């Protein structure tokens, strides 16, 4: 009687042990990650190199994202398109780089005259924003995971002082996203130019102005060498999301625990980006001011003209694109509802 029992017990233990070993020895999930930004770029490039490290650590090595610099696998501007068509597994960037497909994607990256970090995150995670984003991205074989949010950007660098709204007319300026549409209404000739190409064009006079990002990032790119007037606030990007994009079919193949590790790591990266972003700007601004940069704020009149132009863009784009209207309406309703909290809870 004891022999059959022992055989059964051994079989059970063997099966359980086999399952445990199978889990422990399961092959690592390996995904190639193409970045839109160089890995040494302050904050948004560095985040793309930190994220794989945190995913690997949290997963015990089961999930590996292999970081690739822009241009290594595909040109930077083609990153999301390459993830969508399956040429690469995953990409790091912002939804604003996918707006040639649909202008509604701008709403998931940054919004002119939009909210600060807290309110934008509230709409994204608890106000319908992420649901809208996922539905639209899914149509293009993409799954997005919000993975970083950065503080307000600067409004831009100018080779000469801007005293009135009329001084903008005719300027040639690098500009991103929906903010470019606003500047076009004010007579600015805008171009979307890759980060590494901006400074040479400023130096040789091909560009009169540029916006890019936060002071700590702008400083590293050297814009202060060619343009001395640095304007704030960044009305076009008060908060900006960056995402991890995974080919939808590839995402659906992942085990649920692997998806959870990625989502948790991205949540941690959001905290890191906010804290590091807020901590780093004063030093860069102080150093650039010491180097002769004139840090200015737009006059109330110029800000009012920019906001009026933005309202025109919203009306035009809502009439042209049903997807944009649907997403913008969700965002606008949330901001109206949120206003009672914003107006009473925060110091002006």
Write a structural description.
The chain has 348 residues and is α/β, with parallel strands linked by helices. It has two domains: 25-151 and 239-280, D-Maltodextrin-Binding Protein, domain 2; 156-237 and 281-345, D-Maltodextrin-Binding Protein, domain 2 (3-Layer(aba) Sandwich), CATH 3.40.190.10. It is built from twelve helices and eleven strands. The chain is globular and about 55 Å long. The protein has helices at residues 2-24, 44-58, 79-84, 117-126, 129-138, 178-185, 195-203, 215-221, 248-253, 256-290, 300-320, 322-345; strands at residues 29-35, 63-68, 90-93, 142-150, 156-158, 172-174, 189-191, 209-210, 229-232, 240-247, 294-297. Helix 11 packs antiparallel against helix 12. It has a six-stranded mixed β-sheet, with helices on one face.
């Amino acid at each position: 009687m004891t022999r059959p029992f022992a055989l059964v017990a051994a079989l059970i233990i063997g099966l359980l042990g086999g399952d445990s070993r199978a889990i422990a020895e399961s092959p690592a999930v390996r995904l190639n990650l193409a970045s839109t930004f160089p890995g040494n770029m302050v904050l948004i490039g560095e985040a793309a190199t930190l994220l794989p490290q945190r995913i690997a650590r949290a997963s015990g090595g089961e999930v590996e994202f292999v970081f690739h610099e822009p241009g290594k696998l595909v040109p930077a501007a083609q990153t999301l398109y390459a993830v969508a068509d399956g040429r690469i597994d995953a990409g790091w960037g912002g939804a604003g780089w996918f707006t040639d497909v649909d202008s509604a994607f701008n709403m998931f990256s940054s919004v002119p005259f939009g909210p600060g970090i807290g309110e934008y995150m509230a709409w994204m995670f608890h106000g319908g924003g992420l649901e809208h984003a996922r539905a639209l991205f899914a149509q293009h074989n993409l799954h997005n995971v919000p993975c970083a949010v950065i503080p307000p950007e600067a409004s831009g660098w100018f080779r000469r002082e801007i005293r009135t709204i009329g001084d903008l007319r005719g300027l040639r300026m690098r500009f991103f996203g929906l903010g470019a549409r606003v500047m076009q209404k004010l007579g600015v000739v805008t171009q979307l130019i890759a980060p590494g190409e901006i400074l040479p064009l400023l130096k040789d006079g091909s560009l009169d102005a540029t916006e890019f990002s936060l002071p700590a990032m702008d400083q590293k790119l050297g814009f202060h060498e060619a343009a001395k007037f640095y304007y704030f606030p960044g009305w076009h990007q008060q908060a900006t999301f960056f995402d991890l994009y995974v080919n939808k079919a590839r995402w659906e193949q992942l085990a649920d625990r692997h998806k959870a590790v990625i989502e948790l790591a991205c949540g941690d990266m959001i905290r890191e980006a906010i804290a590091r972003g807020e901590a780093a700007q004063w030093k860069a601004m102080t150093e650039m001011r010491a180097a002769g940069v004139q840090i200015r704020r737009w006059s109330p009149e110029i800000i009012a003209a920019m906001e009026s132009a933005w309202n025109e863009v919203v009306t035009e784009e809502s009439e042209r694109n049903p997807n944009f209207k649907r997403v913008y309406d969700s965002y606008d309703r949330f901001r109206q509802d949120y206003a009672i909290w914003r107006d009473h809870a925060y110091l002006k």
